[in-house]
Every structure is written in C-alpha cells, then in structure tokens.
Amino acid sequence: MSPDPTAHVVSLVDRTPSITGAEIVAALVPPRQFVEASLENYRPDADFPSQQEAVEAVRGFDGASAGAARRGFFRRRPESPAVLPGLYLDGGFGVGKTHLLAALFNRSTGRRYFGTFIEYTALVGAVGYAGAAAQLKGASLVCIDEFELDDPGDTMMMTRLLGDLADDGTRVAATSNTPPNALGEGRFAAADFLREIQGLSDRFRTLRIDGNDYRRREVEAHARVVDDVDAAVASGDGPGSVDSFDAVVAHLSTVHPSRYVKLVDGLAAVGLRDVRPLASQTDALRFVAFVDRLYDAQIRVVSSGTPLDSVFGDEMLAGGYRKKYLRAVSRLVALTSI
C-alpha cells in the first residue's frame, strides 16, 4: 500500500502552544537563514556605496566599542563616533540590515542575544520587567531587529531596559525598516528612532543603508497562488498545515504573539485556503507578527484566493502601520516562492 501523502498534514487551529520566559531567552539567536551570516558573505551592491559603508561600520563597532560600552551609555560621550556603544542601521526592506546585524552577533563574543523588538517585549510580558532585566543582565551584546516606533508604551519600556543593560556594560545594535520610494518618509526614521529612545540617543551611531529589496530582485513581484492548497502542501517535503485563511486569522486572536513561534514549530509549509483582504487592522497586525515568525523559520507558504501581498488594503497601507505591512508583503513574496 502506498503511503498517504496527507498523513503529515496538520491544522494550525488545533495547536494551542505555550512558552516560558526561559524558552524565549533560549530562542534569542539569529533566524536559521542567518546562522552563517558574516561580513564576508554579505554582498554589497556597488550601485549603493552605503552598503559597503555599513559593512565597515559593523566591523568597527565590533572591534572598537567594547571599551566604550564599559563606560556606559549615560557617561561622557566619546569623541569618536566609531566607539559609540550603540549602532542603528536605518534603511528600506531587503537591503541586508538583518544580515549585518546577525554578522555582528556571529563575530562577537561573550553572552549575547539577538531578537526582534516583539520578542523582547514578549519576554517582558512573560516574566515581567525585573525578570527580563535579570535574564539579560551581563550580556556583552543585545541585537534588536525591527525596532518598532509605533507603540509608545513598548518603546519607552524598551528604552528603560536598554538603559539599564547599557549601564552595566552591554552594547546595543538595532535595525528598523523604512519603506523604499515612499516620498521621503523613510528619511525620518533615524530621527524618529533617536527621539523615541531619548536618553540613549547620543550613544548611537546611526547609518542609512540604501538599496533595492533583494527579495523582490530574486523572485516574482507578487506572491504566488495555487489552485489546490491541500495537494501542494501534501506533495512537499516534511510536515505542513492546511487551514482556511479566515480560520487562521481567527485562531491568531486566541494565541499570544509570543507563542506564534511555537505555533509553527516543526512545519515545513503552511497552507492557507481562500485568502481574502483583511478588514480589521487588529487582525492585520496579528498576521504581520505571524508572517515574521514564518519568515524567521523560512517556512514555505502555499495559498489560494487573493495573492498574499494584496491582503493589506490601500487604507491600511496609507496608515500609521504602513512600514509593518510593507515588510510583511516583502516577506510573503519571498515565502510563497520557496
């Protein structure tokens, strides 16, 4: 008897994962696609000199800032920007900021952590502020990918946490996304970042990285769709899930975003039937967080219905969460092309 190809297909809505603070801390490492990231295998685009400048900035930050970090963020500002204990990489989608941040993590020594802004705030949510500070205390380096500026409460909490860690000698490196070709709005991202982190601002060297989105350079401009999601997932390698898009969106509202990483644990593909544009901004933001976890794990996405890069309507893209939605679109294009 031939094996049943659907035997390794599960449903996401049947999963109700839990996660502890210790598990969150253990997962604060670069996503698997960046485990081998280095300055040597980063490929700067010759048409955008700022990419090579970013390579040198990371190299200088790693080599020169350890002593500056020991002086603390709130001490006298060093004369040379090369030894500032904070580094902020500002730029559009797909220009290699996460690669460079992971390369910094990989070339650094000592106890260090790498996570998205959401993962650090999830840690605080799981164990409280004092617990999170205690877990991270003594780290030589904290890397924060996709620093968010749209939630004042979370931003202030992270500013306080980074200040406490930095006073103890921890270096901090961060990135965030600014949308390309957005009528200049991305040019204000660095200023927004520095304003929001207030007392930490004069301790960061900020660097703008220009360039084209490599994910859109290497794949089609739109997310791919299929006629039969079940068959496409069942025919793939490894276990996968298949659910209706509406069922997954509804299920995400019952699972804390810090647990999304466990929701997709062990899957090689996620299938979404009958995708349609999202009507609720709350649902859209949860879906963005879900997409981030899929992208970190490089899980193939298979879908039918509306292309996934079109689930965020014009009104959403024109609003305050534009950067998040555009980042998700870029990642969905890539994930449906794996």
Automatic annotation (TrEMBL):
GO terms for cellular component: cytoplasm. Pfam families: AFG1_ATPase. Keywords: ATP-binding, Cell cycle, Cell division, Nucleotide-binding. GO terms for molecular function: ATP binding; ATP hydrolysis activity. The keyword Cell division applies. One of its GO terms (biological process) is cell division. PANTHER family: AFG1-LIKE ATPASE (PTHR12169:SF6), ATPASE N2B (PTHR12169). This is Cell division protein ZapE. It comes from Frigoribacterium faeni.
